């Protein structure tokens, strides 16, 4: 049970990280000045 829980948490963290990175990349593409600052 603990292994399943840790696996689910790991996948959730990966999805969260991917979402954050995607938003950062989109923000950089849309406003390069804001990304540089």
Structure characterization notes:
The protein is mostly helical and 37 residues long. Helix content is 92%, strand content 0%. The chain has helices spanning 2-30, 32-36.
Low-confidence stretches: none
For the sheet with most strands, the description reads: none
Q: What is the N-to-C succession of helices and strands? A: HH
Radius of gyration: 15 Å
User: What would you call the structural class?
Assistant: mainly alpha
Number of helices in the DSSP assignment: 2
Shape, principal axes of CA atoms: rod-shaped
Mean pLDDT: 89
- Helical residue percent? over 70%
Strand content: under 5%
Distance between the termini: 46 Å
DSSP summary, beta strand count:
0
């Amino acid at each position: 049970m603990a292994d399943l829980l840790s696996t689910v948490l790991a996948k959730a963290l990966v999805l969260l990280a991917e979402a954050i990175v995607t938003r950062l990349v989109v923000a950089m593409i849309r406003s390069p000045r804001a990304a540089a600052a």
